[in-house]
Design brief:
By secondary structure, the protein is of the alpha+beta class. It is built from six helices and eight strands; from the N terminus they run βαββαββαββαααβ. It is 29% helix and 30% strand. The longest helix has 19 residues. It is globular.
């Protein structure tokens, strides 16, 4: 199977409730009927103030949703993109390789229900100053272990972009999903940075580590609700 990640923007003035309903009630059933082996929809419908935990983020063109689709073959994506385009104002598609450094310890909710807690979605480019090999080495070899050490993540999904599937869209190389059991785990700095060690010192550790493989001013983040419509199989 292959995984596709789509990043969606909604039209200005469209209420998030209407946008979410179009994705979950119209687009998602069509994608499932088209043969998707797995489908997760994340919608930026959570009002969470991140100033104390994620201070650097791009608010100029905020992402409204991300959609992860598993297909037998990437060539089968036409019907997926058609369904998504009818629900949003703009989309960008990416073929990715997924790894899950931390998975849910237990699922107490069924496919189709909102996942408890909140999700932080982060999208970022590769700095020109780094080779691709060094970028991956720093992201996977340094930042991932640090994140798992100090953040109270319930689930951590790391998507490495292999190539773009749509002619337009940012040149993102990483799309990361971090699920937290509660909004407080994300917005309270003492909890977000405090699983191990001194949380104030950990803020500096994370900042310095991020600077080694990211352009901080170009990162985009959004707090979202996760809906697993079909678990990959």
């Amino acid at each position: 199977m292959e995984k596709l990640e789509y990043v969606l923007w909604k039209a200005t003035g469209t209420p998030v409730e209407r946008f979410r309903a179009a994705l979950l009630g119209k687009a998602a059933p069509r994608i499932l009927r088209a043969g998707a082996r797995g489908l997760t929809v994340n919608v930026a419908d959570v009002d969470a103030q991140l100033g104390g935990t994620v201070p650097v983020r791009d608010e100029t063109a905020s992402v409204a949703a991300t959609v992860g689709v598993w297909l037998a073959c990437v060539d089968e994506r036409e019907s997926v993109e058609r369904a998504l385009k009818e629900a949003c104002a703009r989309l960008a598609g990416y073929l990715v390789t997924e790894s899950v450094p931390r998975d849910y310890d237990a699922r107490t909710w069924s496919d189709g229900e909102r996942t408890p807690g909140v999700k932080l979605v982060t999208l970022f480019e590769k700095p020109e100053r780094l080779s691709y090999e060094k970028f991956i080495e720093r992201w996977h070899g340094s930042h991932t272990p640090l994140s798992l050490e100090i953040h109270p993540m319930w689930c951590y999904v790391r998507n490495v972009v292999a190539r773009r599937l749509t002619p337009e869209g940012p040149d993102w190389k990483g799309i990361v999903d971090e699920q937290f059991r509660s909004a407080e785990d994300l917005i309270n700095p003492a909890r977000f940075y405090g699983v191990s060690g001194d949380w104030k010192a950990n803020i500096q550790r994370v900042l310095e580590d991020c600077k080694t493989f990211l352009e901080l001013e170009r990162i985009q983040t959004a707090v979202m609700s996760e809906y697993i419509l079909r678990s990959p199989h």
